[in-house]
Design goal:
By secondary structure, this protein is an alpha/beta fold. The chain has helices at residues 60-68, 80-83, 87-96, 102-109, 116-128, 139-152, 178-184, 197-204, 223-226, 233-251, 266-274, 284-287, 322-327, 339-350, 355-358, 375-380, and strands at residues 3-6, 9-11, 20-22, 38-40, 43-45, 49-51, 74-76, 134-137, 156-160, 189-194, 210-213, 257-260, 279-282, 297-299, 313-315, 363-365. It starts with a strand and ends in a 7-residue tail after the last helix.
């Protein structure tokens, strides 16, 4: 398997969303009659598109609005929402600083200590609105923050790091026992991120509720440039879906995988599900909403790293409301709005009544799929030629 890249060294060929296309089915279904929901622990989530735990995407207001629309937004417990009682003042500074000073400013802003009372306060604000509350932290803070969040009423806890493995070795700090952590918390635990079959399989054996798939594909992430790490999302999703299916056959436990990052338009999201995802997590598409705290700007979770930033602040603009992004009506022609409608329509066109059926869609390698016959769109910068 793989191709020779030099003497005694082979490399696999891998694929991203632009490399493939989905083949229509022999039967088509009314999009209004397909089921796009997915199960996360005891929670049945109607909108299988999660908002990522990034400060330019999710605050309390956004999480509440997302919940009312049937989805879930993950709040970052290590961001400005828990470091500052009035995060709006800080967000104003971030969005108004020059691009040359942005990373330096972020590094200074994120040195402010996290206030544990704000963790509980933010969780309670979301729960008081009557919606599902999901929160996130890195592994080193998961035990402490997980206990606080659970006590405050959080419904889902996400443990996220640049690269997640079951066997993290360190002599400088205590590593998180993932299996013990999943057993200790009474709420579902989601762990990420990973991109390989073997790691996904090991993580699933710890008893988590879902696994996040993807290293470095996010629009504001620079991990692939800084560290050279990553696997394109199509191959990563297919490989990790195979691990999920193997785990299910061996144990009878179905652990969903959530493709995280690299998707900004409906077509990419549809391809992720067809490759095996049970849900997806996106940031930039939601950062463009009127409800997003970033005011048209978006930055990676590792952008403020003191010594090795692996993200940047980008301008994505504001194009519509959260409801428009999820359900339309679309005012743009580039596929960045009505994402749930695009998913349901694609499912109908391949003849899939559920996400599980959609995962069986025929996939072809088709690098010309986005450019074939689209010369006018490309030249004029509209539709599929939009940047």
């Amino acid at each position: 398997m793989g191709m020779w890249i030099g003497r005694n060294r082979k490399a696999r060929v891998t694929y991203g969303f632009d490399d493939i296309a989905l083949v229509p089915g022999t039967v088509t279904i009314n999009p209004n009659e397909v089921d796009t929901s997915f199960q996360l622990g005891s929670h049945k989530i109607r909108v299988p598109i999660l908002a990522s735990a990034m400060d330019g995407v999710v605050d309390v207001r956004f999480a509440v609005e997302m919940g009312k629309l049937g989805g879930v937004a993950v709040l970052n417990l290590e961001g400005v929402q828990t470091r500052y009682k009035n995060p709006d003042e800080v967000l104003d500074k971030i969005v108004n600083v020059s691009k040359e000073e942005a990373t330096h400013l972020l590094q200074r802003i994120y040195t402010e200590p996290i206030q544990e009372d704000l963790i509980a306060a933010r969780v309670k604000e979301i729960k008081d609105a009557g919606v599902t509350c999901a929160v996130s932290s890195i592994p080193q803070r998961a035990e402490r923050f997980g206990a606080i969040a659970q006590e405050a009423g959080a419904d889902i806890f996400v443990v996220q790091s640049t690269v997640s493995t079951l066997r993290h070795l360190s002599s400088e700090y205590k590593t998180l026992d993932l299996a013990a952590f999943c057993k200790t918390l009474r709420i579902p635990v989601v762990i990420g991120n990973c991109v390989t079959y073997s790691v996904t399989l090991e993580l699933m054996q710890c008893g988590m509720a879902a696994v996040l798939i993807g290293i470095g594909p996010g629009s504001a992430c620079t991990t692939r440039g800084v560290l050279g790490l990553g696997v394109p999302q199509v191959t990563a999703t297919v490989d990790c879906a195979a691990a999920r299916d193997h785990h299910f056959k061996q144990t009878g436990q179905y652990v969903p995988i959530i493709t995280d990052g690299g998707m900004s338009k409906g077509g990419d999201i549809c391809k992720a599900f067809a490759c095996g995802a049970d849900a997806v997590m996106i940031g930039s598409a939601f950062a463009r909403t009127k409800e997003a705290p970033g005011r048209g700007f978006h930055w990676g979770m590792a952008t403020p790293h003191a010594n090795l930033p692996r993200g940047t602040r980008i301008r994505v603009g504001v194009t519509g409301t959260l409801k428009q992004i999820l359900f339309g009506p679309a005012e743009l022609d580039d596929g960045s709005q009505n994402l749930v409608g695009a998913l349901a329509t694609c499912m109908g066109n391949v003849g899939a009544r559920s996400v599980r059926e959609f995962q069986e869609t025929e996939i072809i390698i088709a690098p010309a799929i986005k450019t074939e016959g689209k010369i006018f769109q490309t030249v004029q910068g509209v539709g599929m030629g939009s940047k």
